[in-house]
Amino acid sequence: MVKSYKLSQILSNLLAYIVLTLFAAVMLFPFLFMLFTSFKVPKDTFNYPPRLLPYEAQVIEVEGFEEPLPAYAVEVNGKMEEYVLVEKNIKAGVFADPGDLDNSYTLPLTDATPVLENGEPVMVTVDGEAYPMFDVMVGDETKQLVQTGATSLGAFANPDNLSQVVYQNVRLSTPVESVKFHPENYVDVLELQNMGRALTNTTLITLLVVLGQLVTSVVGGYAFARLRFPGRDSLFVFYLGTIMIPFVVLVIPLYQLMVMVGWVDRLAALIIPWVFTAYGTFLMRQFFVTVPRDIEEAALIDGASRFQILRKIFLPAAAPAIATLATFTFLYAWNSFFWPLVVINTGSSQNHVLTLALNILRGRAADAPNLVLAGAAISIIPPMLLFILGQRFFIESAMSSGVKG
User: What is the pTM of this model?
Assistant: First the structure.
């Protein structure tokens, strides 16, 4: 009975892990596809069916040619060999036996000589349609065949012996490819549309907004949680009510204010208005309320100032809440698009942030999805890493909120 119970537990756990792994793979696949595509060459991004890993056609240095030649898989004597394309767009014809049109040969026209009679091409009628007759070299023998169509071929040669040549359709041939990453795509993206400056601006703005919100939220939260002054609770409720005001209502008056103070098209307009947050103040205030008053009163009796109490008692205890607020603020500031689009001119590339630069890159590099996705990866990877590093603080915050009342 015990063994049966343990076996059922193992099977249920195994099933849960399999289901969770499948869901994780589905969730991660778009990110992995974006990341791998950012390392591809433009031609590989349009490959059908799409492939996850970046591939690039191999080239081989051949004596007598100034540039490396592309390698293709060619069938020679029933085996697939690696040959190089030495010439393309060779005029060719489709030749067949008059008695069996289904058995055809595709050969260059240089290997076929028209059959003439009294200076005129000999025509053979097959199933009511006339075809010209040719003497065609097939292997080591000459056959009289009719030309049923025209096409173009490529000449593929053995890179070790250029006299061994095989003719076949280039478009239908399979290039020899290998997995190859192109990290230089990221360098190209940073140089294109001044993306490097946009990344610097975004990093600076994000750090200043995060630092500003942490300072104002911690100080404001401590004041609303611990200091007693007339109208404290009413002021807190009024301040908290500003969260319910939609941002679209604030855009026009906020923009007019930026015009009045001369901050339009300046980075200050992306920093100063966002260092105050009712949500952050509320989060820190709720956390500080849970700290026992006995600790604070003991510190006051020992002669500690309010600033010392905040710095040495409340801040260490509030590390999970501070990390949570810092992460949310970072994500908001890093991904902000609408307000920078309003207050920063499109032509002022020196003051662009990543979201604006990516919006312009989408148009400029429309024919190079690999560069667009490289820019997207630059924008996504930093907040993703921050979220992973700060995940344990979220868990600590949730656990502490569950045990403190």
Answer: 0.71
